[in-house]
Specification:
With 369 residues, chain A is an alpha/beta fold. Chain A is built from 11 helices and 16 strands.
C-alpha cells in the first residue's frame, strides 16, 4: 500500500505538521476518497489556537472537502439508492450522522444539537482514522452521507464550502419575504454566501457591512447593492448608513456573520421593528455584549434567532444549487487562495489575518500563492 | 347634565387628583360608558412616575375597563354587525384603532407597531376628552372596538385585565407544543395570566419564578406546578432549580414577564437548546443587560422573540375565554384589591410596592381594602 | 424455554387463529416484552379484510402495546440514556425506526413517508419474529424506541392507543389558536382523542359529528360541547348544525377522522373561510369524493392538510401526557371493551361493527366482555 | 369641464360600449387619474359573460391600472406620509380598503375575505362613479392606496398587472425552499408571473404545464426549465412528464393557475409526498372535480392551500420588484397586445380565446394590434 500525506494539528497552539501515514485498510461500507479540494475556514483557526472545547488532538483538519472515490468496500448508495462507483467526484456531509435516537434528534427535532454528532476534521481525531480533508486521501466511514458533484460543480461548491450550507440554514431561518431588504453583517465566506443566498431567496436589496476592502469588493461582486466598511464607520455611523437606505426603518432582516459579540446588538439596532435577526457568526466564545432589552428587543417586537450548524438538507440543497452553473455563478466571483498541503499553516495565518477572502487546500496541486 | 368624577394625573411625578367635570356632549358614533371596573397596572405606575415618553398630561389613566353603555349616539355595532344597546355590559380595545394605512399596518402587518395608534388612558389625555377608565364614566370615540361581556364575565375578564391579551399574545408567539415545559419569569398579573394561558394552550408543566410569596401562592393556585422565590435563590440557584425539573435541559419555552433587564438573559439560560424565549416584560427602559452571544444564543440555536402590546384578535380571544366560566376559572383565583376612585393613589402605591397581586378601580363602589 | 400464545392472521380474509410458538432466543440489544395490553384498531380490521397493500402474511397483529420487560439482552436505554431494567412497564413506538438516510427522512424531513419504515404488527410478519402485540409476549428488536409508563399510566395510555399520537399529530398540524372552535368529524378512537387533545391545545369549543349514540356520548364525556348524529342529519343538516354554533361562519378548524371519503368535502364546507382542515381519517382507500375547487377551496382561502401516521415526537408527547393523571383524565372516560387472546376475532367484529368504542386485547387476563 | 371616454359593460352578456361622460367634480381626498394602461384579465371575461355574482352593472371594467395624477383635491400621501403631486405616475390597489373592523379583518386576519371590501372595476359600478380603468380617466376615492411607479416601471408592472400580486400571494403561501422544484399549472398571466416569482423566491427548477404554444414559449422565456403542452399530453402523460424530471417523486410545490377544476386534482397527483399545492386558478365556478382522499391527500401527507386575492402587502411588493429593471426583466419578455378603448371588446375576445398572452388597454394610444 502506498503512503499518504496528511496535515496534522498536534495540539492546541502548536503549528501544523505534515506527516506521512500508510494507506489504511478499509472496513465494509467505507471508502477511500482522494481529496481534490479541502477548506480552510475560521473554525480551523480556532482549532489551531485551541479555542474549541473537546477536540481530540492530534487531528487532521478539513471538514468540508471534495474528491474522487478511489476505493469502495461494499456498497455505498446515494439518497435515491443509486450506488456510487469508484471514480465518482463527490462531497460528503462533515457531520457523520446524528444519532436519530436521542431527545434532541427525535423530540426537539433539532439534529444540529444532537450531543452524539461527530464531525470530520473537528471532533474526529487522528485516533479515529483518516478523518480530515487536509490530506492526500481520507476514509469515509460507513454511513457517511455523500453527494455527487457534476462537471465543474466542485469548484463552485468549494468556493462556498461550509459557508454555503451555513448560509442556507441562516437564510432559511430568516424567512425573507420577496422584496425585503436584507442586511448582512460580516463579509467573510459566510457573509458572502449569505448575500448570494438571500438574493436567490427573494431579497430585493442586500446590504453588507464588513471589512477589509477586498472582502467588501467581493460582496458587491456577488450582488450586494451597497457595502459599508467598519474601519470607516463606528456603530452610530453604520446604523445611520442602514437607515438612509431603508426609509429610516432599518433592514427587514439582518443576518449576523461576524464573530464579534457586539455585532449581535448592532444587528438588533439595524433591523426594523417586527423584523428578524439571525445570529450565525458566534461559533466561538469571544465574550459578552450588552444590550437594552426594552429598546432593542421588546418594544421593537423583534425576533432574534440563533442558528447553529446545518444539517443534511442544507448540504444537499447547497450541492443542488451549485450543480446549476447559471444560478451558482456568484460563487465563481469569490477570489480563492489555493494552498498545497505543505502550506496549510500559511493558509491558516492568511485566514486569521483576513488577508484572503477564501482559502482552499489543494493536496494534489501546486502552491501558486 | 350631571357631573362626573375623574381621577387625573396632572403631570409626571405628581399625585393623582380627584376632579369633577361636566358630562360632555356626544358626537355621532360615540357613547358614554358608565365604568364598573378599571384596571391599575404597572404601566399606570410608570405613567405617574413619568417614565413613559410622549404622555399628554394631564391624563385620566385606566386603559382596560368594563362598564355599561349608558348613552349611544347613532349606531355602534359589534364584530358581526349586531348593534349595541344602551344597558349592555361591555369592554373595549384600549387601542383606538390602528391606522390601516401605514407601512407597519399594511406591509409588515405589525399593527402593534403602527406609529399612529392611540391608546385610551395612556396616549389620549384630558385634552382628548374623557378617555380613561378611572372615572365615573368615559366617552367611547367613534370607531372604538367594543365587545359584550356576558353574565359574570366582567369580573373574570378584569381579573386578567390588560395582562390577559398581553399573555395571549406572548403565548401565541411562544408556539408551545403539547406537553412542553413552560417557564414563566415573573409572578405579577402578566406572569399569572401567562401561567394560565400556557396551560390552556397545551403546556404539560408550567414553572414560575418570581416574588413575593403571595404572588407565588397565586401562581400555584392558577396552575403552576412549582414556584421559585427570587428572594431565596440567586441566578445560579434559579437555573439549577429549572434544570432539576427538566432533565437538565432547561424549559422548552420561557416567557419573560418581569420588568428586570437581567431576566431576559436568565430566560435564555433557563431554556433548552433550540427552544424559544418570549420577552413580554420590558415595557419600560430599566437599563441594559449583558449576555454571551455564543453560549446564550448561537450555540443554543435559540429563538428570542420580543412581544409588544396586543391587537384586537388577542383582546377578542381574551373576552371569549372569560365568557366560559369553566375554562376561565383560574382567573377567579387571583386575589383582587379593589379601590374607590378616591383611593387611586393608594392603589398605585400598592401596585408599585407589590403589596397586592391585582388592583382594580371600582368607581361606583365602596373602598373595602 | 416456555411456549407463548400468539394470535395470527394467516392471510387476507382468513379468520384469526390462536397458535403456540416456542419462546425465541434473543439477539443482543433485543428484549422479550410480556404483553399486558395490546390494541385493536381500524387498521387491524383492514389487515384482516386484506385491504392494505404489502402485508407479509401470516402476521401477528397489534401495533401499539404495553407490557413489562421480561428479559433484556445487553443494554437498552431510554431517550436520556438511562438503562431500562427487567420488570419495567413500557410501551414502544410501533414504527421500528425510520432509515434516517433517504431523501424523505433527511431532505423533506417527512419521516412518516420514509419508504423503508417497518411497523410492528403491520409490515413485520411472523417471518420477522414475534413482532405483534396480540401475544403473550413479543420481541423488541434492537433499536426499538421504548418509553416507560408510570403507575397507572398504561391504562390511560392504552385507552388512547395509536389514536393518541395520531390525534396529537393531527392537532399539531391544525394550528389551533386559543379560543378557536374546532369541529371533529368522526367519533371513533381517533375522533375522541382529537376532541381531548384539541381542548388541551387551546380550543374554546369542540363540536363532534359522528355515530353511533354510544360514541357520541363518549365524545361529550371527554369534552365535546355538542354532538351531531350522522344517522339523524344529512350533509345539509350537519352543515346547518355547525353554522348555528359558529355565527354562520363554520368552524375555525376541522379535523377529519372518519374513513368516509365524502367527509373530507364535508370538512371543507363546515370550515370558515381562511380556516384549516386536517385529514387524518383516510387510512385506507374507500373511493373517490367530488368537490367544487372554486367554492370549497380557492374562494374560501382554505388550507387542507393531509396527516399521515405519527413519529416518535408524537408518541413521546402522548406518553408524557398520560403520565399526568389530572390532564389525561378524559381518556379514563372512554369505555373499553377487553378481550382475551382467544377472542381476538370477536374484538375485530365488534370494532368493525362499531359495537364498542375502544377494544383492547388482554393476553394475560380474563375475557369479561 | 372636458368629457371623458369610458368603456362600459351594460349588463351580463352584453357587448362593451364606448360612452362619453362629463368629467366629474372631485370630493376632498380624491383625485383624477389620467389612465395610461389598464389591464384585461380573465376576470373581465367573466364579468362580460355574467359569471360573477353581485356585479353592479353597468360597470366600467379595469381593476389594475397605471396613470398620472391629473388633479388632486386635498392631500394624498404615500405609505411613508410623503404627499403625492399632480403629474406623478402611480398605480393603486384595486381593493378600496378593507373595513378593518370585521371578524375576518381583525380576528382571522384574512383581509382578502373581508365581506365589505370593494374593488374598482369589479364591485364598484358606474353608479359609484368613474371607478374602472378602461377609461380616459378615473376617480380615485378618498383612502385609495396609491404607489408611485418610477421611470419605466409602469410597463413592467402592467406586464404583470393583477397577476403579479396574485402570483406573489400564491408563492408566499407556497413556502418554497431554496432549490425546490416548482410545478406551475397554467401558462396564462398568473402562471407566467408564478414562474418568475418562484424563481425569484428560490426555486431551483420551475416546470410549466399549459397551452397554447405561444404561452409555453413565453413560460420558457421567463425562466421555466421545461414546458408540457396539455394539447399533446393527457393527465397520465403530464404526470409521467413531471415524474421524469423529479426523480419519480413529483414536484416539491405545485401552483395551480388554470381555471380548470380537474387541474386541482392533477396538482395533487403531480406533487411529492409531504409537498404543497397552492390553488390560485379557481376564481370562478367551472364545476366539480373528483379525487381520492386516501391516495391524493392523506397518504401523501399533502397540504393544499386555497389562495384568494391579494392584499396591499403583495401589491406593494409587486411595485417594489418592478422598480428594479434588473430583477423584473422577465416581465419585459411577456408579449403584450395593446388595444385602444374602442377595441376593448376585441381584447376580451382575444383573451377569452387565448389568442394573446397578455392584453392591455391603452386609452390614450393607438390600436396597433
Amino acid at each position: 500500500m502506498s503512503r499518504l500525506r496528511v496535515a496534522v494539528m498536534p495540539g492546541p497552539g502548536a503549528p501544523v505538521e505534515l506527516r506521512e501515514v500508510p494507506e489504511p485498510a478499509l472496513e465494509t461500507g467505507s471508502a477511500l476518497l482522494r481529496v481534490e479540494l479541502s477548506e480552510v475556514c475560521g473554525t480551523d483557526v480556532a482549532l489551531r489556537d485551541g479555542r474549541l472545547a473537546g477536540v481530540p488532538y492530534p487531528i487532521i483538519p478539513g471538514h468540508v472537502s471534495a474528491g474522487r472515490l478511489e476505493k469502495i468496500r461494499g456498497t455505498m448508495t446515494d439518497l435515491d439508492g443509486t450506488p456510487f462507483r469508484e471514480g465518482d467526484l463527490i462531497t460528503f456531509l462533515d457531520v457523520h450522522r446524528t444519532c436519530n435516537s436521542c431527545w434532541y434528534c427525535l423530540v426537539a427535532k433539532a439534529a444540529t444539537r444532537c450531543p452524539r454528532r461527530k464531525v470530520y476534521g473537528i471532533t474526529y481525531g487522528l485516533a479515529d482514522g483518516l478523518a480530515g480533508g487536509w490530506a492526500d486521501a481520507l476514509v469515509l466511514k460507513p454511513g457517511t452521507l455523500c453527494l455527487r458533484l457534476g462537471g465543474g460543480a466542485s469548484g463552485r461548491f468549494m468556493a462556498g464550502g461550509c459557508s454555503l450550507p451555513t448560509a442556507l440554514h441562516a437564510v432559511e431561518r430568516a424567512e425573507i419575504a420577496v422584496g425585503d431588504t436584507v442586511l448582512v453583517l460580516g463579509s467573510g465566506p459566510v457573509g458572502l454566501s449569505a448575500v448570494i443566498v438571500s438574493l436567490m431567496r427573494g431579497a430585493g436589496t442586500v446590504l453588507c457591512i464588513g471589512a477589509p476592502a477586498a472582502r467588501l469588493e467581493a460582496a458587491r461582486a456577488v450582488g450586494a447593492a451597497g457595502t459599508c466598511d467598519i474601519a470607516e464607520h463606528d456603530a452610530g455611523g453604520r446604523l445611520a448608513w442602514v437607515q438612509e437606505r431603508t426609509s429610516g426603518r432599518g433592514a427587514d432582516v439582518t443576518i449576523e456573520a461576524t464573530g464579534a459579540p457586539e455585532a449581535v446588538v448592532q444587528a438588533m439596532r439595524c433591523t426594523r421593528d417586527a423584523g428578524r435577526v439571525v445570529v450565525a457568526g458566534q461559533y466561538a466564545d469571544h465574550g459578552d455584549a450588552s444590550f437594552n432589552p426594552h429598546a432593542d428587543l421588546n418594544r421593537k417586537h423583534l425576533e432574534v434567532r440563533g442558528c447553529w450548524g446545518s444539517d443534511f438538507s442544507h448540504f444537499a440543497r447547497a450541492v443542488g444549487i451549485t450543480a446549476d452553473p447559471e444560478r451558482s455563478r456568484p460563487w465563481s466571483r469569490i477570489p480563492i487562495a489555493r494552498y498545497g498541503l505543505d502550506r496549510a499553516g500559511q493558509a491558516l495565518d492568511d485566514v486569521a489575518a483576513r488577508r484572503v477572502v477564501k482559502a482552499l487546500i489543494v493536496p494534489g496541486g501546486d502552491s501558486p500563492a
